[in-house]
Write a structure and sequence with these properties.
By secondary structure, this protein is of the alpha+beta class. The protein is built from three helices and 31 strands. The chain has helices at about 1-45, 50-95, 105-140, and strands at about 145, 160-165, 170-175, 180-185, 190-195, 200-205, 215-220, 225, 245, 250, 270, 275-280, 285-290, 295-300, 305-310, 315-320, 325-330, 340-345, 350, 360-365, 370-375, 380-385, 390-395, 405, 415-420, 425, 435, 440-445, 450, 465, 475. The strands form nine sheets. Strands 2-3-4-5-11 form a five-stranded mixed sheet, with no helix packed on it. Strands 6-7-8-12 form a four-stranded antiparallel sheet, with no helix packed on it. The longest helix is centred in the first third of the chain and has 45 residues, at about 50-95. Mean pLDDT is about 75; it is low at about 15-40, about 95-105, about 125-140, about 240-260 and about 450-479. One of its GO terms (cellular component) is cytoplasm. Its main location: cytoplasm.
Amino acid sequence: MPTESASCSTARQAKQKRKSHSLSIRRTNSSEQERTGLPRDMLEGQDSKLPSSVRSTLLELFGQIEREFENLYIENLELRREIDTLNERLAAEGQAIDGAELSKGQLKTKASHSTSQLSQKLKTTYKASTSKIVSSFKTTTSRAACQLVKEYIGHRDGIWDVSVARTQPVVLGTASADHTALLWSIETGKCLVKYAGHVGSVNSIKFHPSEQLALTASGDQTAHIWRYAVQLPTPQPVADTSQISGEDEVECSDKDEPDLDGDVSSDCPTIRVPLTSLKSHQGVVIAADWLVGGKQAVTASWDRTANLYDVETSELVHSLTGHDQELTHCCTHPTQRLVVTSSRDTTFRLWDFRDPSIHSVNVFQGHTDTVTSAVFTVGDNVVSGSDDRTVKVWDLKNMRSPIATIRTDSAINRINVCVGQKIIALPHDNRQVRLFDMSGVRLARLPRSSRQRFPNVPEKRNPSIFHPSNDCLWDEEPI
Protein backbone atom coordinates (compact mmCIF):
# COMPACT_ATOMS: atom_id res chain seq x y z
CA MET A 1 0.00 0.00 0.00
CA PRO A 2 2.74 2.58 0.78
CA THR A 3 4.14 1.88 -2.68
CA GLU A 4 0.79 2.57 -4.36
CA SER A 5 0.28 5.83 -2.45
CA ALA A 6 3.75 7.00 -3.38
CA SER A 7 3.09 6.29 -7.08
CA CYS A 8 -0.24 8.18 -6.92
CA SER A 9 1.50 11.12 -5.30
CA THR A 10 4.13 11.11 -8.01
CA ALA A 11 1.45 11.01 -10.75
CA ARG A 12 -0.41 13.96 -9.17
CA GLN A 13 2.82 15.99 -9.05
CA ALA A 14 3.57 15.25 -12.70
CA LYS A 15 0.00 16.19 -13.70
CA GLN A 16 0.23 19.47 -11.80
CA LYS A 17 3.60 20.16 -13.39
CA ARG A 18 2.17 19.61 -16.92
CA LYS A 19 -0.81 21.81 -16.05
CA SER A 20 1.38 24.63 -14.80
CA HIS A 21 3.58 24.24 -17.87
CA SER A 22 0.60 24.54 -20.20
CA LEU A 23 -0.65 27.58 -18.28
CA SER A 24 2.74 29.24 -18.54
CA ILE A 25 2.71 28.69 -22.28
CA ARG A 26 -0.68 30.36 -22.61
CA ARG A 27 0.49 33.30 -20.52
CA THR A 28 3.58 33.59 -22.68
CA ASN A 29 1.48 33.58 -25.83
CA SER A 30 -0.82 36.29 -24.54
CA SER A 31 2.10 38.45 -23.45
CA GLU A 32 3.72 37.99 -26.86
CA GLN A 33 0.53 39.13 -28.55
CA GLU A 34 0.46 42.18 -26.33
CA ARG A 35 4.09 42.95 -27.13
CA THR A 36 3.59 42.54 -30.89
CA GLY A 37 0.55 44.80 -30.78
CA LEU A 38 2.33 47.68 -29.00
CA PRO A 39 4.82 48.70 -31.75
CA ARG A 40 2.06 48.73 -34.38
CA ASP A 41 -0.15 51.02 -32.26
CA MET A 42 2.80 53.27 -31.58
CA LEU A 43 3.73 53.28 -35.29
CA GLU A 44 0.19 54.21 -36.30
CA GLY A 45 -0.03 56.97 -33.72
CA GLN A 46 3.38 58.61 -33.97
CA ASP A 47 4.40 61.28 -36.45
CA SER A 48 6.26 59.97 -39.50
CA LYS A 49 8.05 61.56 -42.42
CA LEU A 50 6.89 58.78 -44.73
CA PRO A 51 3.98 59.49 -47.09
CA SER A 52 0.70 58.03 -45.89
CA SER A 53 0.47 55.69 -48.90
CA VAL A 54 3.94 54.28 -48.19
CA ARG A 55 3.13 53.87 -44.49
CA SER A 56 -0.11 52.06 -45.22
CA THR A 57 1.69 49.76 -47.69
CA LEU A 58 4.38 48.97 -45.12
CA LEU A 59 1.80 48.30 -42.42
CA GLU A 60 -0.09 45.97 -44.75
CA LEU A 61 3.09 44.09 -45.72
CA PHE A 62 4.23 43.69 -42.13
CA GLY A 63 0.73 42.57 -41.23
CA GLN A 64 0.90 39.88 -43.89
CA ILE A 65 4.32 38.78 -42.62
CA GLU A 66 3.02 38.66 -39.05
CA ARG A 67 0.03 36.54 -40.08
CA GLU A 68 2.29 34.17 -42.08
CA PHE A 69 4.61 33.58 -39.15
CA GLU A 70 1.67 33.33 -36.74
CA ASN A 71 0.32 30.50 -38.89
CA LEU A 72 3.76 28.91 -38.91
CA TYR A 73 3.93 29.20 -35.13
CA ILE A 74 0.55 27.49 -34.74
CA GLU A 75 1.60 24.72 -37.16
CA ASN A 76 4.82 24.34 -35.20
CA LEU A 77 2.89 23.84 -31.96
CA GLU A 78 0.61 21.28 -33.63
CA LEU A 79 3.57 19.35 -35.01
CA ARG A 80 5.24 19.38 -31.61
CA ARG A 81 2.07 17.92 -30.08
CA GLU A 82 2.15 15.19 -32.74
CA ILE A 83 5.77 14.47 -31.87
CA ASP A 84 4.93 14.25 -28.15
CA THR A 85 1.97 11.96 -28.88
CA LEU A 86 4.13 9.75 -31.09
CA ASN A 87 6.86 9.52 -28.47
CA GLU A 88 4.31 8.57 -25.81
CA ARG A 89 2.84 5.89 -28.10
CA LEU A 90 6.26 4.51 -28.91
CA ALA A 91 7.15 4.46 -25.21
CA ALA A 92 3.93 2.57 -24.46
CA GLU A 93 4.68 0.07 -27.22
CA GLY A 94 8.14 -0.39 -25.79
CA GLN A 95 6.69 -1.26 -22.37
CA ALA A 96 4.10 -3.62 -23.88
CA ILE A 97 6.65 -5.67 -25.77
CA ASP A 98 9.34 -5.48 -23.13
CA GLY A 99 8.90 -9.20 -22.62
CA ALA A 100 10.03 -9.73 -26.19
CA GLU A 101 13.38 -8.24 -25.18
CA LEU A 102 13.21 -5.24 -27.52
CA SER A 103 16.44 -3.38 -27.05
CA LYS A 104 16.42 0.28 -26.09
CA GLY A 105 18.59 1.05 -29.08
CA GLN A 106 15.99 -0.33 -31.50
CA LEU A 107 13.20 1.65 -29.80
CA LYS A 108 15.29 4.81 -29.89
CA THR A 109 16.02 4.30 -33.59
CA LYS A 110 12.32 3.87 -34.38
CA ALA A 111 11.39 6.99 -32.41
CA SER A 112 14.14 9.10 -33.98
CA HIS A 113 13.11 7.96 -37.49
CA SER A 114 9.49 9.02 -36.95
CA THR A 115 10.60 12.27 -35.33
CA SER A 116 12.90 13.06 -38.25
CA GLN A 117 9.99 12.58 -40.67
CA LEU A 118 7.90 15.11 -38.76
CA SER A 119 10.86 17.48 -38.56
CA GLN A 120 11.26 17.27 -42.33
CA LYS A 121 7.53 18.00 -42.71
CA LEU A 122 7.98 21.08 -40.51
CA LYS A 123 10.92 22.31 -42.60
CA THR A 124 8.98 21.78 -45.84
CA THR A 125 5.98 23.66 -44.49
CA TYR A 126 8.19 26.52 -43.33
CA LYS A 127 9.95 26.83 -46.69
CA ALA A 128 6.71 26.68 -48.67
CA SER A 129 5.04 29.30 -46.48
CA THR A 130 7.93 31.76 -46.55
CA SER A 131 9.04 31.35 -50.18
CA LYS A 132 6.41 33.79 -51.42
CA ILE A 133 7.55 36.42 -48.91
CA VAL A 134 11.23 36.03 -49.85
CA SER A 135 10.57 36.06 -53.60
CA SER A 136 8.38 39.17 -53.30
CA PHE A 137 11.25 41.09 -51.73
CA LYS A 138 13.70 39.85 -54.40
CA THR A 139 11.56 40.99 -57.31
CA THR A 140 11.61 44.60 -56.19
CA THR A 141 15.39 44.97 -56.39
CA SER A 142 15.77 45.09 -60.16
CA ARG A 143 13.64 45.20 -63.29
CA ALA A 144 14.37 44.57 -66.97
CA ALA A 145 12.50 46.02 -69.93
CA CYS A 146 11.12 43.45 -72.38
CA GLN A 147 9.90 44.20 -75.86
CA LEU A 148 8.45 41.97 -78.55
CA VAL A 149 10.73 42.53 -81.54
CA LYS A 150 9.80 40.01 -84.22
CA GLU A 151 7.85 36.82 -84.82
CA TYR A 152 9.01 34.08 -87.19
CA ILE A 153 6.13 32.21 -88.82
CA GLY A 154 6.79 29.15 -90.95
CA HIS A 155 7.08 25.87 -89.06
CA ARG A 156 4.22 23.39 -89.19
CA ASP A 157 4.81 21.94 -85.72
CA GLY A 158 6.44 22.72 -82.37
CA ILE A 159 9.89 24.34 -82.16
CA TRP A 160 12.39 22.53 -79.96
CA ASP A 161 15.45 24.76 -80.24
CA VAL A 162 16.64 28.14 -81.48
CA SER A 163 20.16 29.38 -82.12
CA VAL A 164 22.02 32.35 -83.63
CA ALA A 165 24.95 32.10 -86.07
CA ARG A 166 28.33 33.17 -84.69
CA THR A 167 29.68 34.36 -88.05
CA GLN A 168 28.55 36.82 -90.71
CA PRO A 169 25.90 36.89 -91.97
CA VAL A 170 24.16 36.56 -88.61
CA VAL A 171 21.02 34.46 -89.03
CA LEU A 172 18.54 32.79 -86.72
CA GLY A 173 18.12 29.00 -86.79
CA THR A 174 15.13 27.00 -85.54
CA ALA A 175 14.69 23.24 -85.09
CA SER A 176 11.18 21.82 -85.28
CA ALA A 177 9.12 18.68 -84.81
CA ASP A 178 7.99 19.10 -88.43
CA HIS A 179 11.29 17.35 -89.45
CA THR A 180 12.89 20.60 -90.70
CA ALA A 181 15.32 23.28 -89.59
CA LEU A 182 14.87 26.83 -90.89
CA LEU A 183 17.26 29.77 -91.15
CA TRP A 184 15.77 33.25 -90.83
CA SER A 185 16.71 36.86 -91.40
CA ILE A 186 16.62 38.33 -87.90
CA GLU A 187 15.72 41.83 -89.08
CA THR A 188 13.01 41.00 -91.62
CA GLY A 189 11.67 37.68 -90.34
CA LYS A 190 12.02 36.12 -93.81
CA CYS A 191 12.85 32.43 -94.18
CA LEU A 192 16.21 32.08 -95.98
CA VAL A 193 16.99 28.33 -96.03
CA LYS A 194 15.11 25.15 -95.19
CA TYR A 195 16.97 21.97 -94.22
CA ALA A 196 14.89 18.83 -94.88
CA GLY A 197 17.49 16.07 -94.60
CA HIS A 198 16.11 14.43 -91.45
CA VAL A 199 13.29 11.88 -91.36
CA GLY A 200 12.44 12.59 -87.71
CA SER A 201 11.86 15.53 -85.43
CA VAL A 202 14.76 18.03 -85.44
CA ASN A 203 15.51 18.51 -81.74
CA SER A 204 18.39 20.99 -81.74
CA ILE A 205 20.43 23.28 -83.97
CA LYS A 206 23.87 24.81 -83.38
CA PHE A 207 26.09 26.92 -85.67
CA HIS A 208 29.80 26.35 -86.30
CA PRO A 209 32.03 28.87 -84.49
CA SER A 210 33.81 30.08 -87.66
CA GLU A 211 32.20 28.57 -90.79
CA GLN A 212 28.75 28.57 -92.37
CA LEU A 213 27.93 25.11 -91.05
CA ALA A 214 24.97 23.97 -88.98
CA LEU A 215 24.72 20.93 -86.69
CA THR A 216 21.29 19.41 -86.14
CA ALA A 217 20.18 16.51 -83.92
CA SER A 218 17.13 14.43 -84.74
CA GLY A 219 14.73 11.76 -83.59
CA ASP A 220 15.92 9.63 -86.54
CA GLN A 221 18.93 8.67 -84.33
CA THR A 222 21.39 10.81 -86.31
CA ALA A 223 23.05 14.21 -86.20
CA HIS A 224 23.69 16.07 -89.48
CA ILE A 225 26.27 18.66 -90.43
CA TRP A 226 25.22 20.76 -93.42
CA ARG A 227 26.57 23.83 -95.17
CA TYR A 228 24.44 26.85 -95.96
CA ALA A 229 24.91 30.01 -98.03
CA VAL A 230 22.49 32.90 -97.53
CA GLN A 231 22.12 36.47 -98.67
CA LEU A 232 20.34 38.74 -96.22
CA PRO A 233 17.45 40.82 -97.59
CA THR A 234 17.33 44.58 -97.08
CA PRO A 235 15.50 45.32 -93.82
CA GLN A 236 12.33 47.40 -94.03
CA PRO A 237 11.54 50.11 -91.45
CA VAL A 238 9.06 48.99 -88.82
CA ALA A 239 6.95 50.89 -86.33
CA ASP A 240 8.10 51.02 -82.71
CA THR A 241 6.21 48.89 -80.21
CA SER A 242 5.51 49.92 -76.66
CA GLN A 243 7.74 48.52 -73.96
CA ILE A 244 6.62 46.15 -71.30
CA SER A 245 8.63 46.20 -68.10
CA GLY A 246 8.85 44.15 -64.93
CA GLU A 247 6.03 41.74 -64.20
CA ASP A 248 3.51 43.33 -66.58
CA GLU A 249 2.09 40.95 -69.14
CA VAL A 250 0.10 41.61 -72.29
CA GLU A 251 -1.88 39.38 -74.60
CA CYS A 252 -0.63 39.55 -78.18
CA SER A 253 -3.41 39.72 -80.73
CA ASP A 254 -3.35 37.33 -83.66
CA LYS A 255 -5.67 39.32 -85.93
CA ASP A 256 -2.92 40.59 -88.20
CA GLU A 257 -0.80 37.43 -88.22
CA PRO A 258 -0.23 35.42 -91.38
CA ASP A 259 -2.41 32.41 -92.03
CA LEU A 260 -0.77 29.52 -90.22
CA ASP A 261 -2.24 27.07 -92.71
CA GLY A 262 -0.01 28.51 -95.44
CA ASP A 263 3.54 27.16 -95.77
CA VAL A 264 5.67 30.30 -95.45
CA SER A 265 8.87 28.24 -95.85
CA SER A 266 7.81 26.73 -99.19
CA ASP A 267 9.60 29.50 -101.13
CA CYS A 268 12.90 28.98 -99.25
CA PRO A 269 15.84 27.23 -100.94
CA THR A 270 15.83 23.66 -99.59
CA ILE A 271 18.84 21.54 -98.59
CA ARG A 272 18.10 17.81 -98.49
CA VAL A 273 21.53 16.14 -98.30
CA PRO A 274 23.92 16.67 -95.34
CA LEU A 275 27.61 17.26 -95.65
CA THR A 276 28.22 14.70 -92.87
CA SER A 277 25.94 12.30 -91.02
CA LEU A 278 26.89 11.12 -87.52
CA LYS A 279 25.45 7.63 -86.94
CA SER A 280 26.35 5.78 -83.76
CA HIS A 281 23.36 6.15 -81.45
CA GLN A 282 20.65 3.58 -80.83
CA GLY A 283 18.02 6.10 -79.78
CA VAL A 284 16.73 9.63 -80.31
CA VAL A 285 19.52 12.23 -80.53
CA ILE A 286 18.12 14.98 -78.35
CA ALA A 287 20.94 17.56 -78.59
CA ALA A 288 24.29 18.28 -80.25
CA ASP A 289 26.96 20.96 -79.99
CA TRP A 290 30.37 21.96 -81.36
CA LEU A 291 33.49 21.77 -79.22
CA VAL A 292 35.69 24.86 -79.16
CA GLY A 293 37.44 25.20 -82.52
CA GLY A 294 34.72 23.31 -84.40
CA LYS A 295 36.81 20.25 -85.25
CA GLN A 296 34.79 17.96 -82.99
CA ALA A 297 31.09 17.67 -82.11
CA VAL A 298 29.25 16.05 -79.22
CA THR A 299 25.79 14.48 -79.27
CA ALA A 300 23.41 13.42 -76.48
CA SER A 301 20.90 10.61 -76.90
CA TRP A 302 18.07 8.75 -75.26
CA ASP A 303 20.26 5.63 -75.43
CA ARG A 304 21.91 7.02 -72.25
CA THR A 305 25.18 7.94 -73.96
CA ALA A 306 26.88 11.01 -75.35
CA ASN A 307 29.23 10.63 -78.31
CA LEU A 308 32.23 12.71 -79.34
CA TYR A 309 32.92 12.77 -83.10
CA ASP A 310 35.67 13.96 -85.39
CA VAL A 311 33.90 16.31 -87.80
CA GLU A 312 36.22 15.79 -90.77
CA THR A 313 36.15 11.97 -90.72
CA SER A 314 32.76 11.43 -89.00
CA GLU A 315 34.49 8.84 -86.79
CA LEU A 316 33.46 8.21 -83.19
CA VAL A 317 36.24 9.42 -80.87
CA HIS A 318 34.69 8.73 -77.45
CA SER A 319 31.45 7.22 -76.20
CA LEU A 320 30.58 8.89 -72.91
CA THR A 321 28.74 6.41 -70.70
CA GLY A 322 27.62 6.56 -67.09
CA HIS A 323 24.16 8.10 -67.02
CA ASP A 324 21.48 5.72 -65.74
CA GLN A 325 18.64 7.13 -67.81
CA GLU A 326 18.01 9.06 -71.02
CA LEU A 327 20.06 12.18 -71.69
CA THR A 328 18.15 15.44 -72.06
CA HIS A 329 20.79 17.94 -73.20
CA CYS A 330 24.47 18.60 -73.82
CA CYS A 331 26.48 21.82 -73.93
CA THR A 332 30.11 22.75 -74.60
CA HIS A 333 32.28 25.43 -73.00
CA PRO A 334 32.90 28.42 -75.32
CA THR A 335 36.67 28.55 -74.72
CA GLN A 336 37.72 25.21 -73.18
CA ARG A 337 37.36 21.55 -74.10
CA LEU A 338 34.64 20.90 -71.52
CA VAL A 339 31.25 19.22 -72.03
CA VAL A 340 28.29 19.07 -69.67
CA THR A 341 25.51 16.50 -70.13
CA SER A 342 22.18 16.32 -68.27
CA SER A 343 19.89 13.37 -67.77
CA ARG A 344 16.61 12.05 -66.45
CA ASP A 345 18.63 10.31 -63.71
CA THR A 346 18.57 13.65 -61.76
CA THR A 347 22.29 14.29 -62.39
CA PHE A 348 24.47 16.25 -64.75
CA ARG A 349 28.05 15.35 -65.62
CA LEU A 350 31.09 17.46 -66.47
CA TRP A 351 33.46 15.87 -68.99
CA ASP A 352 36.99 17.25 -69.30
CA PHE A 353 38.83 16.74 -72.63
CA ARG A 354 41.57 19.33 -72.08
CA ASP A 355 44.15 16.55 -71.74
CA PRO A 356 44.12 14.60 -75.06
CA SER A 357 45.47 11.44 -73.43
CA ILE A 358 42.72 11.08 -70.83
CA HIS A 359 39.29 12.49 -70.12
CA SER A 360 37.84 12.86 -66.63
CA VAL A 361 34.23 13.08 -65.49
CA ASN A 362 32.54 14.62 -62.45
CA VAL A 363 28.98 13.73 -61.40
CA PHE A 364 26.76 16.32 -59.72
CA GLN A 365 23.63 15.37 -57.79
CA GLY A 366 22.08 18.68 -56.87
CA HIS A 367 18.54 18.01 -58.14
CA THR A 368 15.72 15.66 -57.15
CA ASP A 369 14.10 15.23 -60.58
CA THR A 370 15.05 15.19 -64.27
CA VAL A 371 17.79 17.70 -65.13
CA THR A 372 16.37 19.17 -68.33
CA SER A 373 19.48 21.16 -69.24
CA ALA A 374 22.83 22.40 -67.97
CA VAL A 375 24.72 25.17 -69.76
CA PHE A 376 27.99 27.03 -69.40
CA THR A 377 28.03 30.77 -68.79
CA VAL A 378 30.74 33.36 -69.11
CA GLY A 379 33.68 32.54 -66.83
CA ASP A 380 33.58 29.41 -64.71
CA ASN A 381 29.86 28.96 -63.99
CA VAL A 382 27.33 26.27 -64.93
CA VAL A 383 23.57 26.78 -64.72
CA SER A 384 21.34 23.69 -64.37
CA GLY A 385 17.55 23.50 -64.62
CA SER A 386 15.29 20.68 -63.54
CA ASP A 387 11.77 19.31 -63.39
CA ASP A 388 12.07 19.75 -59.60
CA ARG A 389 11.24 23.43 -60.26
CA THR A 390 14.69 24.73 -59.36
CA VAL A 391 17.56 26.32 -61.23
CA LYS A 392 21.02 26.25 -59.68
CA VAL A 393 24.16 28.23 -60.47
CA TRP A 394 27.44 26.41 -59.88
CA ASP A 395 31.08 27.48 -59.75
CA LEU A 396 33.39 25.13 -61.66
CA LYS A 397 36.13 25.74 -59.11
CA ASN A 398 33.97 24.45 -56.25
CA MET A 399 30.89 22.48 -57.28
CA ARG A 400 30.13 20.86 -53.94
CA SER A 401 27.15 23.17 -53.51
CA PRO A 402 25.48 25.78 -55.75
CA ILE A 403 26.29 29.44 -55.30
CA ALA A 404 22.67 30.40 -56.06
CA THR A 405 19.33 28.56 -56.20
CA ILE A 406 16.21 29.81 -57.96
CA ARG A 407 12.92 28.21 -56.85
CA THR A 408 9.97 28.46 -59.22
CA ASP A 409 6.35 27.29 -59.44
CA SER A 410 6.78 25.14 -62.56
CA ALA A 411 9.23 22.69 -64.14
CA ILE A 412 12.13 24.21 -66.08
CA ASN A 413 12.74 23.44 -69.74
CA ARG A 414 15.81 24.17 -71.89
CA ILE A 415 17.39 27.25 -70.34
CA ASN A 416 19.59 29.88 -71.98
CA VAL A 417 21.97 32.55 -70.70
CA CYS A 418 22.65 36.06 -71.97
CA VAL A 419 26.43 36.18 -71.75
CA GLY A 420 26.74 39.97 -72.10
CA GLN A 421 24.36 40.93 -69.29
CA LYS A 422 24.57 37.69 -67.26
CA ILE A 423 20.81 37.09 -67.45
CA ILE A 424 19.22 33.64 -67.26
CA ALA A 425 16.09 32.94 -69.31
CA LEU A 426 13.87 30.24 -67.82
CA PRO A 427 11.12 28.74 -70.00
CA HIS A 428 8.56 26.85 -67.91
CA ASP A 429 6.06 24.09 -68.50
CA ASN A 430 3.26 26.59 -67.82
CA ARG A 431 4.34 28.64 -70.91
CA GLN A 432 5.90 31.38 -68.80
CA VAL A 433 9.38 32.73 -69.60
CA ARG A 434 11.04 34.53 -66.71
CA LEU A 435 14.36 36.38 -66.49
CA PHE A 436 16.74 36.17 -63.54
CA ASP A 437 20.21 37.46 -62.86
CA MET A 438 23.07 35.17 -61.83
CA SER A 439 22.42 35.75 -58.13
CA GLY A 440 18.83 34.49 -58.39
CA VAL A 441 16.98 37.84 -58.43
CA ARG A 442 13.96 37.84 -60.71
CA LEU A 443 14.04 40.62 -63.28
CA ALA A 444 11.00 40.24 -65.52
CA ARG A 445 8.44 37.99 -67.17
CA LEU A 446 8.02 37.93 -70.91
CA PRO A 447 4.59 38.47 -72.47
CA ARG A 448 2.76 35.45 -73.82
CA SER A 449 0.95 35.08 -77.10
CA SER A 450 -2.78 34.31 -76.96
CA ARG A 451 -2.51 32.20 -80.10
CA GLN A 452 -3.51 28.58 -79.54
CA ARG A 453 -0.86 25.90 -79.81
CA PHE A 454 -0.96 22.90 -82.08
CA PRO A 455 -2.91 20.10 -80.40
CA ASN A 456 -0.07 17.60 -80.98
CA VAL A 457 2.71 19.82 -79.61
CA PRO A 458 3.82 18.80 -76.10
CA GLU A 459 4.45 21.43 -73.44
CA LYS A 460 8.08 20.42 -72.91
CA ARG A 461 11.10 22.47 -73.96
CA ASN A 462 9.88 25.92 -74.89
CA PRO A 463 13.24 27.71 -74.93
CA SER A 464 14.26 31.28 -75.51
CA ILE A 465 17.45 32.76 -76.93
CA PHE A 466 19.45 35.94 -76.79
CA HIS A 467 20.84 37.84 -79.73
CA PRO A 468 24.62 37.78 -79.14
CA SER A 469 25.35 41.22 -80.62
CA ASN A 470 22.82 43.48 -78.90
CA ASP A 471 21.65 41.26 -76.02
CA CYS A 472 18.10 41.38 -77.25
CA LEU A 473 15.89 38.59 -75.97
CA TRP A 474 13.89 36.61 -78.48
CA ASP A 475 11.00 34.67 -77.01
CA GLU A 476 10.23 31.48 -78.90
CA GLU A 477 6.88 29.72 -78.82
CA PRO A 478 5.67 26.85 -80.97
CA ILE A 479 3.99 28.36 -84.00
